[in-house]
Amino acid sequence: MSLPNVWHLRRVADTAAKACFVCYKPSASVLITPDNKAAAKAKQEALAREIEIVKKEYEEKQRRKKEKEKEKKADDEPKNSDKKSKKSDKESDSGAKSLEKERDEKIESLTKSASSSATDDSPRIFALHKNFYQMRVDRQCNIEMAKRNRQRLQDPSAFPSVPSGDL
What we know:
The chain is mainly alpha-helical. The chain is 63% helix and 10% strand. The chain has helices spanning 38-79, 82-120, 130-154, and strands at residues 7-11, 18-19, 26-27, 29-32, 124-126. The strands form 2 sheets. Strands 4-1-5 form a 3-stranded antiparallel sheet, with no helix packed on it. Strands 2-3 form a two-stranded antiparallel ribbon. The protein is elongated. This is DUF1742-domain-containing protein.
């Protein structure tokens, strides 16, 4: 495992603050490796999911609205003349426009919030001092060793078995 000595500074929320290596105080400034872009990708995926949910809600509302209009038209046709149907068409058009406008506003607000936070995240690149770099490399190695040890302990074939047979 070769960990490059190139680090990007990223600002995170106070809830995701990490402890400083020197003073152990929580810090909202976090150093990440350049290949660790998972956070940005997850953020974009979450935004795409939210937009998809808003679109589905809008389509569902439109479908329900059309069903209600069909039911009203079926009920109103024998009773009323063309005047009321024209009024209901105008009302439905204005209602559809307002729902569509509301959906567009939601999508725009989601994209604006994502783009505004993306412009604030201007990554700064650092190369750590050799001692701090070695501390990080050692920590990564310890994490990998602990993971391997856990896997070994969970494997029953790693332990010796009781001898079977006569002596």
